[in-house]
Amino acid sequence: MAEVQLVVQADDFGMCHAVNVGTVEAFRDGIVTQVSTMAACPWFTEAAALGREFGIPLGVHQTLTCEWDFLRWRPLTDGASLVGEDGTFLRSVAEAQASVTYEDAVRELTAQVAKFAAEGLAIDYLDVHMGQSATPAAYDEVSSAAGKPFIYGAVESQRFGSIETLSDRDANVKRAWLLEYLDKLTPGVHLLVTHCAAAEPELGALHKPGSYTYRWAEEYRLSDQELVTDPEIRKAIEERGIELTTVRAAFSLD
């Protein structure tokens, strides 16, 4: 076992077809080691099939929000506090924090876990969409019931030497940032979160021009995709003696 271990995670699997295609490529041909998957999203069925086909280590990307203008998804349950006037999830974490009740959150997140089981998918971990939990206690309860770690929880997150996100950086500095990040990794297990997608027209149709989410639709995802599938980045990881791993393997969750 190497002194420095790195989990490279791709988020939002199941969100749309372009994300699914890019994420599979990033896992098969790149450095992505595990994939956070959204059960409430329209392309989850395809993601589940791809996960089974390629043996991708999966986590539940629990979601109580939907940030896009034109790609809108609904809860699996009927909790009134979960939705806006159009019946879809609220657009921001702040809106969800102000609206979602503990009871509705637990029921919805439990249903998302159950949908994985219905597809015959093994769950390695749970995390959260958009980086912040709307109702923290609900995530803890659901992960406890599932018997899987909520990796951003107060206890579980402390097991990592660091947790960083590659995505939300300007494309022209992202490569330099990643190489410096690799250079500075200390002994322990580190988590690097990415958002991958194939260059499909679908991405440009997620939002209105000038929407606050526009950089997350194409720019961040395509630049992440380029880096995590770049052979030179894999070579840099190998030259530094860094071991690519998963949460399940690093923390002996079998």
TrEMBL record:
Its cofactor is Mg(2+). The keyword Thylakoid does not apply. InterPro entries: Glyco_hydro/deAcase_b/a-brl (IPR011330), YdjC-like (IPR006879). Pfam families: YdjC. Keywords: Carbohydrate metabolism, Hydrolase, Magnesium, Metal-binding. The keyword Cell wall biogenesis/degradation does not apply. Transmembrane segments: none annotated. SUPFAM superfamilies: Glycoside hydrolase/deacetylase (SSF88713). One of its GO terms (biological process) is carbohydrate metabolic process. One of its GO terms (molecular function) is hydrolase activity. This is Putative glycoside hydrolase/deacetylase ChbG (UPF0249 family). It comes from Kribbella kalugense. The lineage of its organism: Bacteria, Bacillati, Actinomycetota, Actinomycetes, Propionibacteriales.
